[in-house]
Fold these 2 entries.
Entry 1:
Amino acid sequence: MITVGLLEKYGVIKRSFDKNDIIFEEGNLPLHYYQIISGEVKMSNYNDDGREFIQGIFYNGQSFGEPPLFLNQKYPANAIAVENTELFILPKENFMKLLEENPKVSIQIIENLAQRLYYKSIMAAEISTHEPEHRVLKLIDHGIAYFNFQKDKNGYFINFTRQQIGDLTGLRVETVIRTIKALEKKGELKIINRKVYR
Amino acid sequence: MITVGLLEKYGVIKRSFDKNDIIFEEGNLPLHYYQIISGEVKMSNYNDDGREFIQGIFYNGQSFGEPPLFLNQKYPANAIAVENTELFILPKENFMKLLEENPKVSIQIIENLAQRLYYKSIMAAEISTHEPEHRVLKLIDHGIAYFNFQKDKNGYFINFTRQQIGDLTGLRVETVIRTIKALEKKGELKIINRKVYR
DNA sequence: TGCATTTTATGACTTTAATCATAAAACGGG
DNA sequence: CCCGTTTTATGATTAAAGTCATAAAATGCA
């Protein structure tokens, strides 16, 4: 996250997106740095028969879509507003200038990318070698640490739909529904009128 | 990749590892920056029944294991020498000092992390939503661009065993063997005395 | 050069999650 | 508050990759 003051100094603009609006598309060349003011953004891929894989979900203060910006490569996924969302948008050249002139920001960018790599390392290993229960639980536990799940008297409220959990773990909705039921039976999590707590 | 001169200025040491030696283990706290002088290193996870998932393979000049170093988190995977390997090793404090005092290195680190995130984004989507043929082909094509595959008269020589391809794509050896045969039949790649070319 | 190990190979079978069908409950915009 | 949409739910069936068994070819190191 880059401070508002600094962004403004380099000519940032604000832009609003409605729920389900596309922010950028897979295959396009990156031209901007994006940082969330409010709302929620997902980055995801669709395979040939329309099945979705969610690469990540981003909230207030977080940036997304930088890797291909640094590499001059095409976006490997789409960015879509999950809710009405307001963004800071900075043209690539301005962003690069900002980085050069503010070395401390580089460290923040590094930490941010490191954090995302860490998440992907964990989920990649989960998705390729673990059964559904393990995968779902790992996602949830990671989410408690890094997504914005809130704790109340029932425990942490897992603010994802079954479909989203499936799209993040490579499982189908029905499998997620059955897996969550099984995890509840084992006492690993609670279902209180259809909402999941851990 | 950080230049030798700079590394030496900050007190780097050299160390040799034999084939199959463990460089660091999952769960340990990172204490050093590692950069390969010669040889080959893999980072991988093992699940409860010993099944391996390879997070990445690294060659001459490449560094590995930085993300948890920046985050003060435990290593999410093991690092193992695939062949006899020589490494530059720099203690964490020295590495951080190097970064602070040499802002341009930050940009290189950023580009490196961005590259690895890009690879992981692609493979994560592959592993969770595509069939074996698509996964194997995508890995191979990515490998041609980013691993050190050599081109000869038969095409690019895919310098991976079937087992390695399986461990990188979340498939079993037998499945990889059958998939590669199927891809050859379709003309997507060549098998010349058991070696794979594309 | 000989022999143990690794890699590739193939067939039979099994298991697990995907698929398909259907529906009730909950949500949300007009 | 009504009605279309989304989300959760459940059972039956299927398909695809995993598992198991076995072996030949290739590799490598002692």
Entry 2:
Amino acid sequence: MDPPAIPISVYKPLPFNPYTRAGLPGMMPIPESNNTIKTTEIVGTQIAADPQDNRHPTVIELSVPWNRQNCSIQPGFVEKFYQSSRLHYLSTWKAKLRDITTKLQKDRPPVATTRVHRTIMHIDFDCFFASVATRGKPELQVKPIAVAHGTGGSTSNSEIASCNYLARDFGVKNGMQLLKARTLCPDLVVVPYEFQQYEDISIEFYKILLGHADELQAVSVDEALVDISSKCIPSWGARSNGGQLSVSGTPDADPSRISPAAFALKVRQEIFLATGCHASVGIGPNILLAKLSTKRAKPHGQYIWPSPPGSERTLEELQGAVPDLIEDPEDGPSPPDSVNTSFSQSYEPPPVVRKSVSRKEPVVKDLPGIGYKISQDLLERLNVRTLHQLQQIAREQLQVICGMKTGDLLYNSCRGMDETTLASDRDKARQSVSAEISWGVRFENPQQVDVFMRDLAQEVSKRLKEIDRKGKSIVMKIMKRKAFIQGTWKHLGHGPVDQFARTGQLPLYTDDPDLIANEALRLLNYFQFDVLDLRGLGIQVLKLNNDVVNTVSKSAFALPMESLMNQTTLTSAMFQKSMTVINPRPLDKNEPTLLSATAITQEPPPPPIERRAEPEKPTMEIDSGTFKELPKDIQDELLRDHKLVFINENTPEVSGVGPGVMTERGSTAVDQPSEQKHGLPSWSQLDPRDLMALSTPIMRDALKEYAELKQTDRGKLDRSVLQALPPEIRAEIEQEYTHIMESHELIRKLAQTGSSGSGCDGGAVANARFQLRAPTTAMVLSHEYPPPPLDQGTSRSKTRGRGGPRGRPRGSRARGRGRGQMSDHPERVDDTRCLQDDAHSSGSTTTAGQAQPKTRAQPKEPELDADFLAALPQDIRAEVEAAHRVELIKNRRRQEADLAAQKDAAAASRQGFGGGSALNELQGPVLERPTLMGKREIGDLRVLLTQWVQSTLVEQDLIRKKGDRQGQVEKEGGRGSVETVVLDEGPNPDDVQSFMDFIARVIAMERDLERVRLMLRYLRRRIEDNERQVEPLLLPVGQGRKPAVVGVVMSWRQAFEWVLNVTRQLVVHIYGGSFDLD
DNA sequence: ATCCTCCCCTAC
DNA sequence: TAAGGTAGGGGAGGAT
Ligand SMILES: Nc1ccn([C@H]2C[C@H](O)[C@@H](COP(=O)(O)OP(=O)(O)OP(=O)(O)O)O2)c(=O)n1
Ligand SMILES: [Mg+2]
């Protein structure tokens, strides 16, 4: 498909930049609008503000040398980026810590399972990066500081990773951009990252925690959840006090149990001594309350949740604010276990912690798992902002608005209830591995994209190898610049984008960078985006193999964590390099110390919140399922005007009562005919390629018709519509739709002229920017039959008594047109084919390049080896040649390849060749399922292979020369003892060829390399079986002098090598990746 | 009902 | 100058 036509209008000067709409009247710059909405923090460079400058914004950006230097077109960009990305480090550390702590705990039976009453500690460094920066620097500790890139000039607008609490008092926040922060806090001191330090300190942190844990869950580099049930005196026993219930209570109780407060203090102290950084601790009866406690403890403190989940006291705690004026009185109500203040004397806080100690009224967003979106939904639709308000809402109502689970989460969380266990993610293996970059992504041409994607694939491959796993499925993630939206955003950032993703299957479990890159490029190419519009690219690998080598459980009895710690397993396993010793600066004696009581103790119960009676609304009972079906605006209207009571009309239809009012089937049945009324096939039956074949205006109309059909409530396109669309069309629709939403008629018209608003640079140039598509595959069917697999003319077929399995595998060639016809070759045996010969060096010339070391795929100009080609069945050979001809092997569209393969296969089977290939009878686009002797079940194939290999063993009477152990054995006629020995005649080359045909089809059509690997491995084992049965000294020298003795034309080992090598080459040509058996 | 696939959302 | 990554929970819609 051609790139979108260039609109006529490009040939006239436009009064505005068609890419950005700069110069159009009445256009407000639209601020950054991606997922993490921080619109208030957008400060940045104006892009393409000059209405005279009609160049594409990317072209403008790349005309600045510094940008060229630092963006994705620069070699080595990927590596450089990852070295500097804090978020990347955060993710990496988290994954590693999870791995390690999971492994460390796997062998160990849980200290106590299914405990009813738990004690959970949440611990988190205060302003971690910032703390590390000020560690041992008292002069910095009294200033507001922030950790960010670009510490040099005052013009820097990088993001703040972490700022200390002094800075926070100015309103500065983590994640805020520097320019904004400086307006809030002009004296902000910006300090650089120290990634290595964060790592080292984290190790110390975890070592200490593991020494105190019944169970530990790594949350992040500076944060962990620790089950300390056995270490602490139970504090929230609902109705039981600890002593009574030893069964449901806490087994394995450490006799030295202490109060949670004392425990927290001890841990904090240890951590400070080891790291020089302060961590805050929250302790509660579940994860939720522990986390909420930490929030209250910060900075530099601890908080023990005072009451059980769901209790009246907890509900009040969750509502309460602490006004600024109320300094915590010493004699305020203490938590159940009051703080052991004697500990605190030896634990000295930094000179200044922060200025204020107030606590704002807790809001919905404070709950873990509730972020911007849900919080916003609740505000808009239920007018709920605070936890207090949330507590008034019925569970069903929350579920209707936020979904079942999220509704439950909200309902339970605002009451302090949470049953989540720490152990739960113990046994969960990683599900996916990905690498994605959406900063600095700017391209001018497809070649640069290619290089970048290969780097990304390399990165993913590296990460897979690190955890010793392989994947079978990949997702290509793309961010594409939203057209026509001008605005300001961070330097070289992605700006406003649409996101796209497409899934593809890898042909086998793999971590091969070439396979991954090729598939990813194919998926990317499918979108046909202008490379100038690319803003982010990512590769995710999933469906990871599960044969993870589980750590063997070492001993029957449990090793305590403490002793595991002594092995420094954590250190070495987590970070390859040896740990640098941390020397926390001892506190100066004369440093001011300030042990604020507020930091450690808590906290008066908040004044009872006044519950205003809501103005009376009419009550309405409504089934929650019904409510959910209503359009959003109707829902909101009901919510606004009525007091809704949700009921569950279970639609039980116990006795198959009459037609339900609104059964599911009913609604489907309504959908279906309504589509047929329009004379349109259903979406699921629609082939995107058919759509693409339509001329553009017709296509557009058809799509609109579909879109309107499936449009649900106002303002929202049905997801299934979009999902069913070919991506490039989808992009177009989404974009156009955006404009409809914006109600800008002019823009709308413009949008209809091209899919990405491109076309200003002139057609020829623009063309080069689109990734090329493979030409429609017209496969050449007229090819000579491939030459013999063995060297020219020396191989032969020979009918043998037991040669080949019953009904030996036979391709078309054996039936008359192939070499199999050549029955009268001289019976000559080539000694070089003996088993003991180095088949690699002297073997047949057909297998050129056999046993080469595994080579990287050559993406650019793969050589087409004539002999290799000759080994392939005709149709596959055609495919390989076609692919090579376009020199786009790495970018081939698999869809088309599949199509072509099927077409060819169909043609092939019609013509009566193809080694038993048969199209699956299933309808729709289905992959070719090749067969061997009519079999394709793996079990059947194994039987077949076994029979085949065993069938070439023959018994032979031989005379062994006495005393000649190593020498040759003469067959018959020699002097010495007569023995019956087993010989292996080796396979019939025709059969080998047939087998190769089959394998090639599995590779090229079924595209299942895992299957290939299984079969080849099985074959190899059978061959090894044979070798074990053959008289060890009897190497098949193949001196077939007598008619009775069969000359060995080709040994099994040679045949196998040959098949393997052809396979490898085929894989390189089709997938561009390597293939190994093991 | 329950699965799968394609998203969006959240957290650090 | 700047480095907006990444894994997993879960909802919506379709297939089974
Ligand atoms: N938007 C963010 C949030 C966090 N981080 C990094 C820097 C933080 O120091 C570290 C830990 O995150 P926290 O949420 O724990 O924040 P802090 O530790 O900085 O502050 P505190 O925990 O005291 O609130 O993660 C980041 O780079 N960008
Ligand atoms: Mg922290």
